[in-house]
Amino acid sequence: MHLNPYGEDAVNLAADLVNRRPGSAGELADRCRAAGLVLERPVTQQDLDRAHAVLDAWEEVVDAPDDHRRAELVNRMLAQSAAHPRLTDHAGSGWHLHYRDDRQPLGAVLSSLISVGTALHLAGRGMHRLRRCAVTECTTIFADTSRTGRQRYCSQRCANRDAVRRHRAGRALSRPASPAGAAGP
Ligand SMILES: [Zn+2]
Ligand SMILES: [Zn+2]
């Protein structure tokens, strides 16, 4: 994969995998391929296990209470996965940087891709740009790559849902409840 300078593809892949966890090695392979990863080796159960461990760690990064804790958790992921950077043309589609050794199994590839991509995303766009949807019952995680950095919902559907709810709550507040309730100072 050509990791773009802001890590956008990597954080989007992580969010996709964490929101709907792959159930088999085959599904993991298909979804990584669909995201643009070039798979150099057969994908095994070990890769799936490693992927789930990486996604567990990533979810903790998303739910970190503040920037320092978030940075600490990302640094821990980086320490467990990243090798020295190297230029490669392994897919024959252009020279790009890898932050891992050559010919790694998919689990290891995801570990370095997601940790380095997340570090680039947070450093490049802002430490707050990973979060869960603002709708209380929706736990979907997304990477905020918007221009303003103020995306609150995982989807247009959730944005609409919340708008309807706020509208109803507003009407309930402005309606006089009872003569007693309306009495003010
Ligand atoms: Zn590559
Ligand atoms: Zn949502």
From TrEMBL:
User: Which residue windows are transmembrane per the record?
Assistant: none
Q: Where is this region: Disordered?
A: 165-185
Extract the InterPro entries matched here.
ABATE (IPR010852), ABATE_dom_sf (IPR023286), Znf_CGNR (IPR021005)
Q: Which Gene3D superfamilies match?
A: Jann2411-like domain (1.10.3300.10)
Q: Which residues form the Zinc finger CGNR domain?
A: 129-169
SUPFAM superfamilies tied to this protein:
Jann2411-like
Pfam families to which the protein is assigned, alphabetical: ABATE, zf-CGNR
Renumbered to this chain, the Low complexity biased-composition regions fall at 171-185
According to UniProt, the name of this protein is Zinc finger CGNR domain-containing protein
Q: What taxonomic ancestry is recorded?
A: Bacteria, Bacillati, Actinomycetota, Actinomycetes, Streptosporangiales
